Amino acid sequence: MTQSTLKIGEMIKALGLEPHIEGGFFRRTYQSADENTVVIAGGLRHCMTSIFYLLTQDSPIGHFHLNQSDIVHYYHLGDPIQYTLIFPDGTLKTIVMGHDVLAGQCLQLHVPGGIWKASQVMQGAAGFGLISEAVTPGFDFADMEMGDRQKLGQQFPEHWALIEKLTRG
Ligand code: GUN
C-alpha cells in the first residue's frame, strides 16, 4: 500500500464516507428538517440535501447519471476534477473544478436537473479530489438514473467514446 493510499483511507475514515453507487465515496452531511419539504411529481422531498463526495486514484470516476434536481458543486481539496455534461439536445460540456481559478478552473459548478453528468479526478500529487454537493429539491434515488451504456450510446452516438469510458459495462 502506498503512502497516498494510506492517507486517502484515513480521510475516508475521518469524513465517515461510504462507497457511492456512481463510484467514489460520499456521506450525506445535511438534510432540511422533515417539516421543511417540497412536493414534486414523484412525491415529497427535503427542500435541500448535501453530501461530501470524494474521488480517489482507486475509484477515480463518478459514472454517468442523471438527477432530476439541480445540484451545486463546491470544490474543496486535492487534485482537479473534470466534469463531463451531456445536455438533452446532445450538447457536450467539459468543466474542470479546482483551485486554479486563474487557469479557468471553477470552485462552484451548477448542474441543472435533467442533464447527464460524469466526473473524473485528474492525475495529480494528492491522488484524490474532494467536493461538496447541495441538491435541491433534496436527493432521492427515485429521481436519479444511472447511465446504461447501450441506451446512452443510442441516444448520443456522437459521444460514444466518452459514454464507453464513463459508464459501467
Ligand atoms: N448524490 C447527491 N446527493 C446524494 C445523497 O444524499 N445520497 C446519495 N446516495 N447520493 C447523492
Ions, cofactors and other ligands present here are: guanine
- What share of the residues does DSSP label as strand, in percent? 35-45%
- The total count of strands amounts to 13
Radius of gyration: 16 Å
Topology at a glance:
Elements: H1 3-15, E1 18-19, E2 25-31, E3 37-40, E4 43-46, E5 49-56, E6 61-67, E7 70-78, E8 81-86, E9 92-97, E10 108-111, E11 116-121, E12 128-136, E13 144-146, H2 149-155, H3 160-165
Antiparallel strand pairs: 1-2, 2-5, 3-4, 5-12, 6-11, 6-13, 7-10, 7-12, 8-9, 8-11
Question: Your description of this structure?
Answer:
The protein is built from three helices and 13 strands. The chain is of the alpha+beta class and 169 residues long. The chain has a single domain, classed as Jelly Rolls (Sandwich). The strands form three sheets. The protein has a six-stranded antiparallel sheet with strand order 1-2-5-12-7-10, with helices on one face. A hairpin with a 2-residue loop joins strand 3 and strand 4. The longest helix has 13 residues. 32% of the residues are buried. The structure holds guanine. The site of guanine has 7 residues, from strand 2, strand 5 and strand 12.
In short:
Helix content is 15%, strand content 44%.
List keywords for this structure.
169 residues, alpha+beta, Jelly Rolls, six-stranded antiparallel β-sheet, 3 helices, binds guanine
